[in-house]
Head-tail connector protein (Macrococcus psychrotolerans), 93 residues
Amino acid sequence: MILTIEEARSILRVDDDYNDEIIKPLLQAIPEYLYLTTGRRWDYGEPVPLAKTTAGFILQLWFDPQTKDSERLKRTIESLIVSLTALGRSYND
């Protein structure tokens, strides 16, 4: 996984394990989503800060898709995925 459950709770500002049943499947889906959108695996080896940041924004959007900031989150995620894709290509060169 790109993010730990503790990191996810911190990002979502959740103090206890009450929402873990919702959070854990989201955390498991994020690596596959990033692979499909960037063409590279980000959940192996040393954590990549940009991948962790992108995963955090995705988690926020998926956890609460009706938030008033959802459109801003979507635009931010799109930009981060473009950057992450470029970073992944530079690793392959």
Q: What stands out?
A: The mean pLDDT is 95. The chain has four helices and no strands. The two ends are 25 Å apart (CA to CA). The CA atoms of residues 61 and 69 lie 9 Å apart.
